[in-house]
Amino acid sequence: MKKALICGVSGQDGAYLAQLLLGKGYRVWGTSRDAQMSSFSNLERLGIRQQVQVLSMAQSDFRSVLNTLSRSEPDEIYFLSGQSSVGLSFDQPAESIESIAFGTLNLLEAVRFLGRPVRIYHASSSECFGDVLPGERANEMTPFRPRSPYGVAKASAHWLIANYREAYGLYCCNGILFNHESPLRPARFVTRKIVAAACRIAAGSHEKLSLGRLDIARDWGWSPDFVDAMWRMLQQEQPEDYVIATGEPHTLESFVASAFDQLGLDWHDHVDIDPSLFRPSEIAHSAGDPAKALNGLGWRATVAFPELIGNLVRAEQDILAAKP
């Protein structure tokens, strides 16, 4: 039985990945900063909480990371933890860089110190690329030009992974993931904010939804698809980096329009633009080229944009219906 350690198991991707690995017969360990206090609500929602053994780990503390690896003795490590909000990184740049870049460094050093044959997946990000010109798609050779502290931190961690792979022969790879959504997405993310507000309005709420720029374009995929790509990356003979994306960008306005339209609403009647929500610097257009993932991993996105939004709307309606 293979053993996997998912750092950040309580998040959207961590929970779906745990579900996938359990289905493949893995013994799954997961980390959270405080395993005693964390709710692990996503694991409970998927019905797998009792099947995942959880540990407390502070990735900025080398001793904590080393202790976690010694206790779990994993064959595969999926490093998904760290500050996850681009917007929040402008308010907390130091914490973003510490948790992401130094957290990755501590993990790599701990694996090197222990000397066990471990395979490492690192969650890199499309934010590393910054702006991608309209009509173009970023691939594994596209230069990085991050436009947020989060993107800078992810780019630093990305190159640490590449350096340790080349310098020390570690099996470690980067999944350069573009935006991906699911019903497990936290409420602070704009996609969940949009869908939740649209569902409340359709149910009778008279609120207005306040948003920032709507002209930005993103390449949105489905989280369960993306965690499958993570697993596939660690099954290859040689570690390589892969862009994971659908290849089809859509504007935030089209996301808003589709969510409201699926509920029989015209978004223009319910949305206000709030300039205070504009970020200091923003990526205008982001799209990825998944050709290498298709050729090297046999992976492709299975959920198209309209189906993705439909899934999110139905899940949010179920949440509203379950409330007393």
TrEMBL record:
Its cofactor is NADP(+). NADP(+) binds at R213. Signal peptide: none annotated. InterPro entries: GDP_Man_deHydtase (IPR006368), NAD(P)-bd_dom (IPR016040), NAD(P)-bd_dom_sf (IPR036291). The keyword Phosphoprotein does not apply. Keywords: Lyase, NADP. Its EC number is 4.2.1.47. SUPFAM superfamilies: NAD(P)-binding Rossmann-fold domains. Residues 5-309 form the NAD(P)-binding domain. This is GDP-mannose 4,6-dehydratase. It comes from Azospira oryzae. The gene is gmd.
